[in-house]
Amino acid sequence: MPTTRAPEDAYTAEPFLPERLTLPALRRAAATCRGCPLHRDATQTVFGAGDKDARVMLVGEQPGDQEDRQGKPFVGPAGKLLDRALEEAGLDPADAYVTNAVKHFKFTQAEPRKRRIHKAPSLREMTACGPWLAAELAVVEPELIVVLGASAGKALLGSSFRVGEARGALLEREIHGRPEKLLATVHPSSVLRARDDKERKAAYEGLVADLKVAAEALG
Ligand code: URA
Ligand code: SF4
């Protein structure tokens, strides 16, 4: 049979969602998602991690190389930096539900043995994967959503979202018909990408300062 590809605007995770929305059911179902082409090259689905009673939900962009191999979000270098920043801001990483806008790793690889280089997901891929994030929000019902970087912001708040304009302030926005409190900040990977030590230190301190606003909001 000839293989035909779904047009990009037909990408969606929707048909893969389970009837009953619980975290274990969602995680099982997401493991078989083929809602967009990203599942083809990635090792596995990296679903969110944490407790359904978590008060805060952290949303990143997509799994990276380490996350793709280990099947857990934020376990690589960006995750280590994030954990450090959370603790410094007075937030216990163990009290947070951590997830991503997109659940499969998107990368380019020039040759099979070469390092896999992260590629930003397209808006359509983020939209396709959106039902998983919406379901996580519906189950966890966090008091506060921490938006880590532009992709998470665009996935949750639309394509006009800009981190620079939104960061560090408590926002209230309607998401999937419910009012949500949000705090946006930079993606921890952007701290790792800083050009020199001075820039890295300033970027890290900016991240911690924003996370402190989240910590205060949670009380
Ligand atoms: N970057 C992300 O946005 N998410 C991860 O899980 C790891 C790195
Ligand atoms: Fe499904 Fe999201 Fe993976 Fe695409 S990236 S296949 S929508 S889980």
What does this 3D model show about the protein?
- The protein has 219 residues and is of the alpha/beta class.
- It has a single domain, classed as 3-Layer(aba) Sandwich (Uracil-DNA Glycosylase, subunit E), CATH 3.40.470.10.
- It is 38% helix and 15% strand.
- The protein has 8 helices and 7 strands, in the order H-E-H-H-E-E-E-H-E-H-H-E-E-H-H.
- The protein has helices at residues 23-30, 65-70, 77-89, 123-140, 150-157, 163-166, 188-192, 197-218; strands at 56-60, 96-100, 107-108, 117-118, 144-148, 170-175, 178-185.
- The strands form 2 sheets. Strands 2-1-5-7-6 form a 5-stranded mixed sheet. The chain has a two-stranded antiparallel ribbon with strand order 3-4.
- A hairpin with a 2-residue loop joins strand 6 and strand 7.
- Helix 3 crosses helix 8 (197-218) and helix 4 (123-140) packs across helix 5 (150-157).
- The chain is globular, with a radius of gyration of 17 Å.
- The mean pLDDT is 95.
- The structure holds uracil (URA) and iron/sulfur cluster (SF4).
- Iron/sulfur cluster binds at residues 13, 30, 33-36, 38-39, 45, 102-104, 125, 128-129, 132.
- Iron/sulfur cluster binds next to helix 4.
Q: What keywords describe this structure?
A:
binds uracil, Uracil-DNA Glycosylase, subunit E, five-stranded mixed beta sheet, two-stranded antiparallel ribbon, 219 residues, binds iron/sulfur cluster, 8 helices, globular, alpha/beta
Q: Determine Rg (CA atoms, Å).
A: 17 Å
What is the number of beta strands?
Answer: 7
End-to-end separation in angstroms reads 59 Å
CATH superfamily: Uracil-DNA glycosylase-like domain
**Structural class category:** alpha/beta
